[in-house]
């Protein structure tokens, strides 16, 4: 029996490599499926000012926003309720105020989220004797109230879009079940790998079976959590057709040089066109005064390509020192991985028993070090464009990380650059960046001239 156990433990490095390979394959498959399920781009239809359907502005915001409900959808709903005579928006001196009108208004029967917006205005109006609510006071309330209110609005808009056949869940139950089943296979491989680690004869509680069970639970629980957290919406044929029609309206409204600056009270002139313009992202002047329409981190309008277009911004996830950030921190992290793996393998005496994981760590550290040095020695890539988003985020260790989303006009989806220091530029500046080709390390940031654009925010 002892001979069987010894032979199994000698297979440890191979079993660990197989388990790691299965885990990598699982994540690669998840990424490929996520890319396949991403909403497809929709080409705008013919430019027109005719409203091409009866979809509410909030649903139109979902269709025009890559099947995601953004905060401007709520401001667009307020404007639409004013256009349909359930609310009134008036200019009183330098203030813009809202009132609730008596009656049910015009148009189709209101949806639950439209009723919810009117109820929000009514609740704020009851706090004053004149029943008037300044636009600037249109807040969702404290975080304890704002979060559930926004989630309810977003869920109801999504349900409305699904009921109209314009949207569907991005991750179906069948796809999630397949990945959960595959996660069970990865967890089993992790358990087998953990069972090759020798137990400590001086610790009566140390058992390979216990370690295997723990590895299986951790692996299956972690991968299962990744699967269950997948959410979002995706397109349908009817949704793409409707989106194309509404994007034609967007193009026509965007070509009007005065439309973008129209205030909320201009709904009296533009009627529902202003609400739909807010939903389509081309009426920032009507959206900006509402506190419930904060600027989006992930979407921005840009004219860098010569015409206005919506740009989607992605941010590097996590704080992995092996990618982005400072070159020194990445090299130090690679050296630390290499040293850790070599140290433990040397400590085990090269017996092969249980040193599989540390051989993998050493190999990863060596590869990371080589690629880091090669990256720094390679010719730098030059990026020139407009800063669409400037963001600062706090790390757990009280350090800050800066992000610049720079649009060079070539793509509708860009990835923000991560920096370990405050760059000498701000949002709206035209900039020139020099970055390394492999790991996107920003080595130079400089403003180009003094021109700064007040980009219309996609809120």
Task: Give a verbal description of the structure.
- The chain has helices at about 1-10, 10-35, 55-65, 70-85, 110-125, 145-165, 175-195, 210-230, 235-255, 265-270, 270-280, 285, 325-345, 355-375, and strands at about 85-90, 95-100, 135, 165-170, 235, 300, 310-315, 380-395, 400-405, 415, 415-420, 430-435, 440-450.
- With about 450 residues, it is α+β, with helices and mostly antiparallel strands.
- The protein folds into two domains: about 55-170 and about 230-295; about 295-459, OB fold (Dihydrolipoamide Acetyltransferase, E2P) (Beta Barrel), CATH 2.40.50.140.
- The strands form four sheets. Strands 11-9-8-12-13 form a five-stranded antiparallel β-sheet, with no helix packed on it. A three-stranded antiparallel β-sheet has the order 1-2-3. The protein has a three-stranded mixed β-sheet with strand order 6-7-10, with no helix packed on it.
- α3 packs parallel to α11 (about 270-280), α4 (about 70-85) runs antiparallel to α11 and α13 packs antiparallel against α14.
- The N and C termini lie far apart (about 65 Å).
- The model is unreliable at about 320-325 and about 455-459 (pLDDT under 50).
Question: Average pLDDT value?
Answer: 82
**Helix and strand string, N-terminal first?**
HHHHEEHEHEHHEHHHHEEHHEEEEEE
Strand share of the residues? 15-25%
Strand order of the largest sheet: 11-9-8-12-13
Shape: globular
Gyration radius from CA atoms, angstroms: 28 Å
Main sheet overview: 5 strands, antiparallel
- Counted up, domains total 2
Structural class: alpha+beta
Instruction: Give the number of DSSP strands.
Output: 13
Measured as a percent range, the helix fraction is 40-55%
Number of helices: 14
Outline the low-pLDDT stretches. 319-323, 453-459
Distance between the termini: 67 Å
């Amino acid at each position: 029996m002892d001979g069987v156990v010894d032979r199994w433990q000698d297979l440890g490095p191979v079993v660990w490599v197989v388990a790691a390979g299965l885990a990598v394959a699982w994540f690669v498959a998840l990424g490929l499926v996520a890319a396949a399920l991403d909403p497809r781009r929709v080409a705008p239809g013919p430019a027109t000012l005719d409203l091409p359907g009866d979809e509410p502005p909030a649903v139109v915001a979902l269709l025009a926003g890559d099947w995601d409900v953004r905060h401007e959808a709520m401001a667009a709903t307020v404007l639409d309720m004013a256009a349909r005579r359930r609310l009134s928006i008036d200019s009183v001196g330098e203030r813009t105020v809202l009132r609730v009108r008596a009656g049910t208004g015009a148009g189709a029967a209101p949806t639950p989220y439209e009723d919810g917006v009117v109820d929000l205005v009514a609740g704020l109006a009851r706090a004053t004797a004149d029943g008037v609510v300044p636009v600037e006071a249109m807040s969702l309330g404290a975080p304890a109230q704002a979060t559930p209110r926004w989630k309810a609005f977003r869920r109801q808009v999504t349900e409305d879009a699904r009921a109209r056949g314009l949207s569907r869940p991005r991750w179906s139950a069948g796809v999630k079940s397949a990945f959960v089943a595959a996660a069970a296979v990865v967890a089993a491989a992790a358990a087998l790998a953990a069972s090759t680690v020798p137990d400590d004869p001086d610790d009566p509680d140390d058992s390979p079976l216990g370690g295997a069970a723990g590895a299986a639970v951790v692996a299956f629980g972690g991968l299962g959590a990744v699967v269950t957290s997948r959410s979002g919406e995706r397109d349908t044929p009817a949704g793409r057709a409707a989106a194309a029609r509404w994007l034609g309206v967007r193009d026509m409204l965007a070509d009007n040089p005065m439309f973008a600056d129209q205030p909320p009270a201009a709904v009296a002139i533009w009627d529902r066109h202003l609400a739909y313009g807010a939903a389509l992202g081309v009426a920032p002047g009507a959206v900006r005064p509402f506190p419930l329409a904060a600027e989006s981190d992930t979407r921005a309008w840009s004219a860098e390509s010569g015409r206005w277009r919506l740009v989607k911004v992605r941010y590097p996830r996590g704080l992995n020192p092996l990618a982005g950030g400072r070159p020194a921190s990445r090299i130090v992290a690679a050296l630390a991985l290499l040293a850790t793996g070599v140290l433990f393998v040397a400590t085990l005496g090269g017996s092969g028993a249980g040193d599989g994981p540390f051989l993998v760590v050493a190999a990863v550290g060596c590869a990371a070090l080589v690629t880091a040095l090669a990256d720094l020695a390679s010719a730098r890539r030059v990026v020139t464009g407009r800063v669409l988003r400037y963001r600062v985020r706090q790390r757990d260790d009280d350090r800050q990380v800066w992000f610049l989303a720079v649009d060079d006009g070539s793509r509708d989806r860009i990835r923000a650059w991560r920096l370990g220091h405050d760059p000498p530029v701000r949002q709206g500046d035209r900039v020139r960046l020099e970055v390394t080709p492999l790991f996107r390390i920003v080595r130079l940031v400089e403003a180009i001239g003094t021109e700064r654009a007040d980009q219309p925010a996609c809120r």
